[in-house]
Amino acid sequence: MKQTFLVKHAVGGRMFIDSNKQELKYTFAPQGEGWLFMVDVPWSEAIEELLARKNELNVFVFQEFDDRPTLKTWYYVKDGPVEYSADQSRLTIVADSRIEYYPHLYST
Question: Which among 7, 40, 86, 98 is most buried, taking Cβ atoms within 10 Å?
Answer without folding.
Answer: 7
